[in-house]
Every structure is written in structure tokens, then in C-alpha cells.
Design brief:
Blueprint (H helix, E strand, L loop, with lengths): L23 H17 L13 H4 L9 E7 L3 E2 L5 H8 L4 E5 L6 E2 L4 E7 L1 H32 L5 E3 L9 H10 L13 E3 L1 H7 L2 H14 L5 E5 L5 H7 L3 E5 L3 H11 L4 E5 L7 H4 L6 E3 L2 H4 L6 E5 L2
Parallel strand pairs: 6-11, 7-8, 8-9, 9-10, 10-11
Antiparallel strand pairs: 1-5, 1-12, 2-4, 3-5
Length: about 300
């Protein structure tokens, strides 16, 4: 008998990563890698004979005074990545500080000051590009997610991300999705059993599916089991196998309506595949529990943020 949604905790199905959930040691390594790419040619088989910020080194007089610069939104955006600023500046020597003017997750208009950086101008000049790379990328994901959430509108259906993330940056990008108002699907292969089309192809039979679900629930009874289906005919066997969530892949809105009626609340429903801004309003009233899309990350565009010196 398939599980009822009420038998599951919502925390096992989705979450929103907060800054405190992230591993600062991992973030430090990411920033150090970015610094060393910029200063020392990290990634090249043969490192450059001369390294460092040769441009800033050429203006020796900059060391004689303190500098101040604002990080400014050049377009309306959803902010993400500001807590990285103190970490980045510390990795560049700690001779500069950041005063945050807003918070992650805030919507800010063009011209808004996001943070003010003060200290040794050489530190600020050398760290500028790495600071902007992180903030523009993460704010781009948060801004894209906000657009999708707005397009979905006021509905019980929640918008989820996927595992389609930049290698090494998954948790940061999922945090950015949360800042934009979306929800995080599984964080990795470790926190949900998800039997997708290629798993089902290897199983080869309905009996094999039921056995796989039973084995998964014996091995990790605390984890939900999700099964991908791509036709209405696959729904009854997946329900009979004991799925906690059915992933309805590449269904049309009409097919999704029929699928939700066929499932009848016996398990959670998730639509995925070909989800676009234009389609989201059509899906909002179908009674789905979740809609997931990798486009929150892989179709996002870097937000336009600049660093303006205060003279």
C-alpha cells in the first residue's frame, strides 16, 4: 500500500538551505582556488614564471592611503552571496573590511548599494574580480529563481531545484535558489532514493520495481522513495510499488491534470521536464505538490553588479 503524504515529514521532501548550513571550510577552499587562478595561474600545467597582481603593484602610491568602494546593483536583482565578503577579504590578507548594506534574499533596485568595502586599496583592487564573480553568479541564480516563483504565483505548489549544478558549487547554488524563494530538492544522491528512467530500464519489470522500493526502504527507512514516470500507464505500478513521490516527467498540462486525478492524493506529485516561465502559470492550478526545474541554475544569467570607488 503506498504511503500517504501525511505519513511523511515535509522536511524529508524539501528544504531551504540557510547560510549557517554551509561548510565554511569548503567555501574557503573555493575562494582560495579562485584567488590562485587569478594570481598564480592555478589550473595551468605550467605555472607562469611571474605571478601576483602586477597591475596593482604598478601603482605603489596606493598603499599610502585607505580606500573605500561600494558594491552597487546595476539592475534590479535578488541579492545573494554577501556573507562571503568577510571571508574573501580575509583570504586576501585581512587588510580590508566589508559593511553589508542589505541582506541575502532581499530584492534591490538598480543603483542600490549592497555593501561598502574599506581598507587597503591594493587588497580591494586585487580581490575585486573574485568578489564580483561570486556575487554576480549567486545573485543571478537568486534573481532567476525569484522570476520563476513570481511566474508560478500564489499556489500550494512549491518550486524545487535539481542536481543540475556547477561542480563544486552545488550547495552555494542551492543556497542561492533558497534566497530567491525556491526550495531545495535532494542535495545529492545520499538524501533520497530516486528511481529514474535509466534505473527503471535496468530493472525491466514491475516486479523488479517493487523489489527495489522494498530494498530501499529496508536500507534507509527514513528516506523518501521517488519514482519517475513518463506516461499515465506507469502510475498504477509505481503506486503499487510504494512510491512516496511520483515524478511526472514531460507531461503536458492536460496529462498532469489526469495524473493528479488518478493519483488521488495517495502520494506526493512532482512535475518536471520542459518547465519554462511561460508554462508555470498553466501549472499553478493543477493541484501538484511540487514543480522542479534545473533552469533555476543552468539558465540563470549573472546579475550586473559593479564596484564603484568613493573618491
Amino acid at each position: 500500500m503506498p504511503a500517504s503524504p501525511k505519513s511523511l515529514s515535509a522536511d524529508t521532501l524539501l528544504q531551504r538551505l540557510a547560510w549557517d548550513d554551509l561548510d565554511l571550510g569548503h567555501l574557503r577552499r573555493l575562494v582560495e582556488m579562485a584567488r590562485d587562478e587569478d594570481l598564480h595561474g592555478l589550473g595551468l600545467r605550467t605555472r607562469p614564471a611571474r605571478s601576483g597582481d602586477l597591475s596593482t603593484a604598478s601603482i605603489a602610491g596606493a598603499a599610502a592611503r585607505s580606500g573605500t568602494a561600494d558594491l552597487v546593483a546595476r539592475e534590479p536583482l535578488t541579492v545573494c552571496g554577501l556573507p562571503l565578503l568577510p571571508l574573501i577579504l580575509s583570504i586576501y590578507g585581512g587588510r580590508a573590511t566589508a559593511q553589508l548594506r542589505t541582506r541575502d534574499g532581499a530584492r534591490r533596485p538598480a543603483g542600490a548599494v549592497l555593501a561598502t568595502l574599506s581598507g587597503d586599496p591594493r587588497t580591494l583592487l586585487t580581490a575585486e574580480r573574485v568578489i564580483l564573480n561570486f556575487l554576480q553568479r549567486l545573485s543571478g541564480v537568486a534573481t532567476q529563481t525569484h522570476r520563476y516563483v513570481e511566474a508560478l504565483g500564489a499556489t500550494r505548489t512549491r518550486l524545487l531545484d535539481t542536481r543540475k549544478t556547477t561542480p563544486g558549487y552545488r550547495m552555494l547554488e542551492k543556497y542561492a535558489v533558497a534566497c530567491g524563494g525556491g526550495w531545495n530538492h535532494r542535495l545529492g544522491l545520499f538524501d533520497r532514493v530516486m528511481l529514474k528512467d535509466n534505473h527503471l530500464a535496468l530493472l525491466g519489470s514491475t516486479g523488479g520495481l517493487a523489489a527495489a522500493v522494498a530494498a530501499a526502504k529496508r536500507a534507509a527507512p527514513e528516506l523518501p522513495v521517488e519514482i519517475e514516470v513518463d506516461s499515465l500507464a506507469q502510475i498504477p505500478p509505481a503506486l503499487a510499488a510504494g512510491a512516496d513521490v511520483l515524478l511526472l516527467d514531460n507531461f503536458t498540462p492536460a496529462q498532469l491534470r489526469r495524473a493528479v486525478a488518478l493519483i488521488g492524493g495517495r502520494t506526493f506529485t512532482e512535475a518536471s521536464g520542459g518547465i519554462t516561465l511561460k508554462k508555470l502559470p498553466q501549472l499553478a492550478g493543477l493541484g501538484l505538490d511540487f514543480i522542479s526545474t534545473g533552469a533555476l541554475v543552468h539558465h540563470s544569467v549573472w546579475a550586473d553588479i559593479g564596484l564603484d570607488w568613493k573618491i
